[in-house]
């Protein structure tokens, strides 16, 4: 497939996740909840996770953000649902390496692998990683019910 056709396919998948995000909504009171705000661009995400025996049983996100932020959160929810917290942490680290331009095998990220091009636009890395950073807070503190903060400048 020609590079321009491949780029177009990636754009279409990203736009589809942005326009029709997967796992968008809320889970309710039995979930861990993290709200993160990116003060640089104004993106806000609330991520909710329900765990059972250290496994991400349910996951949902809400908020508002740019197409990259929304698409990335949608892709992230698809990639981590059904995974252990350890597996989700490994995927988060893999995604971080991907968007920083490191040469990685991104296949485990599923559609998230298509966001590797974000590395060419450093200002968009925070947009792409917002949902993943919210997930990392839940992974680091799985017993805390609610977190709310800004990501670092």
Automatic annotation (TrEMBL):
<dbReference type="InterPro" id="IPR002871">
    <property type="entry name" value="NIF_FeS_clus_asmbl_NifU_N"/>
</dbReference>
<protein>
    <submittedName>
        <fullName>Fe-S cluster assembly sulfur transfer protein SufU</fullName>
    </submittedName>
</protein>
<dbReference type="Pfam" id="PF01592">
    <property type="entry name" value="NifU_N"/>
</dbReference>
<feature type="domain" description="NIF system FeS cluster assembly NifU N-terminal">
    <location>
        <begin position="10"/>
        <end position="127"/>
    </location>
</feature>
């Amino acid at each position: 497939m020609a590079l321009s056709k491949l780029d177009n396919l990636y754009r279409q998948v990203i736009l589809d996740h942005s326009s029709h995000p997967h796992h968008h909504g809320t889970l309710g009171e039995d979930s861990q909840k993290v709200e993160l705000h990116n003060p640089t661009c104004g993106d806000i995400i609330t991520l909710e996770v329900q765990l059972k025996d250290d496994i991400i049983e349910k996951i949902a996100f809400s908020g508002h953000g740019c197409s990259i932020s929304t698409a990335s959160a949608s892709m992230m929810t698809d990639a981590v649902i059904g995974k252990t917290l350890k597996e989700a942490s490994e995927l988060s680290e893999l995604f971080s390496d991907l968007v920083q331009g490191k040469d990685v095998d991104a296949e485990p990220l599923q559609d998230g692998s298509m966001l590797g091009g974000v590395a060419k636009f450093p200002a968009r890395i925070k947009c792409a990683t917002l949902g993943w950073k919210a997930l990392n807070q839940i992974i680091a503190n799985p017993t805390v019910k609610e977190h709310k903060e800004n990501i670092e400048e």
